[in-house]
Amino acid sequence: MAMAMAMSKTSGSKLEHEAAKLVAVADILADKARRVMKAIENFHLLRELKKSSVPPHKINPTLASNFRKLSAQARRSEVVLEDLRNAYIFMTSQREHKVLLDRYNPLVDLTAEERIHATARRVGLDMPITHEPENDNCDPSSITFDESTGESKITSQNTLNSLSIAAKHLTNLQPVAFPTETVYGLGALALNNSAASCIFSVKGRPPDNPLIVHVSSLDMLHSLLPSSFKMPKSYELLMKRFWPGALTLLFPSDPNTIPSIITANQPTVAIRMPSHPVARALISLVNTPIAAPSANSSGKPSPTTAEHVRRDLSGKLNLILDGGACGVGLESTVVDGLQEDGKIRVLRPGGITVEDIQETLQEGIRDRESVPQVLVHRRDYRDEELEAAPTTPGMKYRHYSPTALVTLLMTKSPLPKSVVPSNVESFLLSIKDTINPSASVKVGLLTLTDSALGTLALPVVNGVEWCRYELGPSDVPSVTARRLFDGLLTLDQRGVDMILIEEVNETNEGLAIMNRVRKAASEVQWITF
Ligand code: TXA
Ligand code: MG
């Protein structure tokens, strides 16, 4: 593939050289043409004179000889003119050929159908892809990194092939789904407008929701930052501890480097370095940053397996790299440490816990007074202006919602004064009537393995089929985090009419879990046992 691309690049630059030569020839020809035209003009003048009552050669012998010379010149000129005309036709066709080559060179390695789609996108058409996306397997354990250069070493030929195909799609400005340690991402070249715009059309994502840019090395990060930017101490500490990993940091965006489609015209750009070997190797292979939101249709739960992506986006993209199930299972933690007060604001809790962020800052900054406070949006502070903008992750738009309605069962938090709780048994017995009294229903339950709800024997109710999916033990929230989206998507796949999901403690990963669960749920029910 690399050779084919190199060849098409070579033929492109050869043509460019040919075109430059042709332009120089055209200039010379144009100059000649001007002179020929002048001669023809004189010739016409003389012909007019000839037509007049007194022939010019009879008036003045010098004029007569000039007239002869000019006539001969004009006859020759017609030949030159014909040559000129042919040269001009040849040149314009070569120019058109070069324009077409420039435009379609990147497509030479694609199949006919891929070429049609890429062409359609270039001219602003959004054509549905009719075939199934390819699922290419990658073995993450076959990939290692040289931490000083950020370059990858891949020992499995199969993985190398899959990554090369994915890199080819990306450089051809096409999106590719790939695994990260958090969730599967839908990647496209971050610094190319038309590539990045595909992400929005494939996901059905509103254009005012900015994207995270993924880098594979610190050098790549620095290539994106404005030269005047001074890295805050807090960022240095956080990057040292959590990069590569599930932490996204906001940086000032340099509008000369980052397209506005990525930032949705915000003054900041969100950047992270993923730790998943497949994600990092892919970025290092294309050697340019990759923009990647979660690889789901807007509003749906994020995918944590290649199969989730295929079910959701099949027909909308050509390639899904399959690197197995994601280890973290929830998206990265989005952090803004750029405010003047130096405080660390967690805009979206995620894979890196607030507790770990606090601990890292405390360990790294000796002077206790100087350790920045870590604030979680909505838990510790509100920002109305921010909340009105879609840049606060998950604020403006519907999020994480499977097809089935989700009800959050509150079992731990103190009961608010105005709320009357339901007894768990009577709630479960009455559920069929709330969903559909006249037909059989399927009810999904996402419960912890050791909680009161998780260990409850479910009542036998006529016309109700219970489908339970376990979220792991209550004291290991990282397991619940890994299983949450898979639980929502698996129950949806089983065709449940409603999903009941149990509240978890909001410590460590629990904060991010409850953040997603609250957004997925359209109803909240307080339960007693
Ligand atoms: O783990 C992750 O972060 C995954 C994987 C694929 O890397 N990506 C992901 O992207 O979750 P997405 O687009 O689904 O969520 C990114 C969130 C969005 O809600 C967006 O509002 C926020 O990050 N975001 C992006 N740029 C921002 C910015 N400049 N300021 C504030 N928030 C931003
Ligand atoms: Mg998302």
Short description:
This protein is an alpha/beta fold and 529 residues long.
Question: What attributes characterize this protein structure?
Answer:
alpha/beta; DHBP synthase; Rossmann fold; nine-stranded mixed sheet; six-stranded parallel sheet; binds threonylcarbamoyladenylate; binds magnesium ion
Secondary structure layout plus pairing:
Elements: H1 2-51, H2 56-59, H3 61-104, H4 112-122, E1 134-137, E2 143-146, E3 151-154, H5 157-171, E4 176-178, E5 185-189, H6 193-203, E6 212-214, H7 218-224, H8 233-242, E7 247-252, H9 260-263, E8 268-272, H10 277-286, E9 290-291, H11 306-313, E10 319-322, E11 333-336, E12 344-348, H12 354-364, E13 374-376, H13 384-388, E14 405-410, E15 422-423, H14 424-429, H15 431-435, E16 441-447, E17 464-470, H16 477-493, E18 498-502, H17 509-520, E19 523-528
Parallel strand pairs: 1-10, 6-8, 7-11, 12-13, 14-18, 14-19, 15-19, 16-17, 16-18
Antiparallel strand pairs: 2-3, 4-5, 5-9, 6-9, 7-8, 11-12
Helix pairs in contact: 1-3, 5-10, 8-12, 16-17
Bound molecules: threonylcarbamoyladenylate and magnesium ion.
